[in-house]
Amino acid sequence: MFELFRSTALVASTLTTGLIAGLFYAFSCAVMLGLGRTDDRTFVSAMQWINVKILNGWFLIPFMGALALIALAGALHLRGDGRSVLPWIVAALVLYGMTFAITAAVNVPLNNQLAAAGEPDGITDLAAVREAFEATWNRWNLIRALTSTAAFGCLVWALVLHGGITSSGA
Question: Which of 39, 68, 99, 131 is spaced 20 to 30 Å from 170 by Cα?
Fold first, then answer.
């Protein structure tokens, strides 16, 4: 039963981390590139609405849950045969922790700053609002896409190692 719980935590942490890595990757290679081609009003309006609509369970549960699930998977691999997997889980925890910290310290404050600018029709200098947001948000989103993808890769490798341990009967 313990092995099932340990395996489930590792699979769940990998899945949630992969979902978030994919989201940040999609923003970097598609969403922001597309919005980058729009006029200032469209850009500001679209990002304001994206920032409102992303705050839902489909995003928040994996985003916050990944950190807790990686930590749980690490705790469950502290003993015995799970220790060979532990360095990869710890690396994933550090990398995803960086993703979480970047989001909290950079991207969310920029989102809040964009919201505080007000409705696009009432903003007198849309270009300045966009300029204060876009390049910094994109740069840090790319970094969090990289850190979350690296965390996902570490967890995938941990799953490979974990599968080798459980299939050998250890």
Answer: 68
